[in-house]
From TrEMBL:
Name listed for the protein in its UniProt record: YozD family protein
Species this protein is from: Neobacillus bataviensis LMG 21833
Amino acid sequence: MREIEVFIDTEEIAEFFFHELVKRGYVPSEEELEELADITFEYLIEKSIIDEEVEE
């Protein structure tokens, strides 16, 4: 299996959730969206889908 480099932006995740939730009739707060984005990011790390790189 080859390795590819993927950049995950939690702000982009939050925006995606916002649009998807609004389409379904929900209006989340900014704080709720940030939490969902963080949870999604942590899930991807836990499932070894991504590795977190810490910037120096």
